[in-house]
Amino acid sequence: MKWNDFFKDVLEKVKEKRLIPDPKGLIGWSCSYIPLEIIEALNFIPIRVIAQTNGEIGDAYLDPNFCPYIKAIMGDMITNKYDYISGYILTNSCDGMKRLFDLLRFHQKSSFAFLLDVPHKVDNSSILFFKEKLKEMISAFEEKFSIRMDENDLIESIQNANQTRRFIRVLFSLQGRGYPPLRHSEIMEIIKYAFDTERLIFNESIKIFIEYLQKQSQIPIHNDKRILITGSLFVTIDIIRLIEELGAEVAFTDLCMGGRVLEDVNLDRDPLLSISRSYLEKFPCARMLATELRCQRLMQEIERNRIKGVIYYTLKFCDPYLFEAPYIIEQLRKKDIPVLLLEGEYSSRVPEAMRTRIQAFLETID
Length: 366
Fold this sequence. Notes:
This protein is an alpha/beta fold. The chain is globular and about 60 Å long. Strand 7 (309-315), helix 12 (319-334) and strand 8 form a beta-alpha-beta unit. Among the domains are: 23-150, Rossmann fold; 224-257 and 290-366, 3-Layer(aba) Sandwich (Rossmann fold), CATH 3.40.50.11900. It is built from 13 helices and eight strands.
């Protein structure tokens, strides 16, 4: 039995029986620094924009040295593959994403589009600044769709999103449970459903799944080849699956659909300020220009998860991650932690050359 297929069956059954009020529409989002709680409080369903093309169409509009993920999104937009989406929220995560926003406004004039300005540092002033930018995002929604956001709806959305995060943390803790043992790749497949499923439906489904899994026996897994994966956008689970097929275990993923989505929003009297603070203080990605802090956090996870090797994965031409990679790799090697740097295209296929490099790397780990 494949656990992700089992979860999909649970999800479909919950969808059939649970009545959810019709949303106002679907909003595409591109970055884990976008607070989905706000989108949901406005009665929209956030959808992670995962492009289906290989970027060839985007080559006609963007420089060849642009991030392949951005070119792939542009190709899908030009071919109207996102017609079902009511609007988009992007961030200033990199220069390429800002150029994508410019092209989006030019080619999709009728669509709602907002560029969220996320600070690059974290202190009291930047937290207050980000709160004001979130207010601007809310105002843009309210003006475009003639709606108003209620603070109670925002509080409820935060609570529901925190419940999702708690469920996902529990799911990671159950890695190795059941027969066959639940693998990290299957957990990541399940998390992907959270990016395009109505929140309450996903929460109920994963709750049922976890309750079933907790009743299963724990299969002892004695695998010394425990791998941590860190890096930029990770579009394919096949790399994780390949690592598992080669006899290693992925114990932690520092990715925008892995370890960076697990921290709760600490709710206080000002829900918007709570969101601003919690999102900026979460496990940082490379665009935050907090390389030393990222390195410290990675070292903590390496120790906590008894990691024996690190795979640093980045898309080609991803400047933030390629900029920080030398420092991260140097610090890991100073600690005698084996590390492999991989640069990939935006594709669901693992190239044979990359497969060979991963296999050779795993063979060097005792």
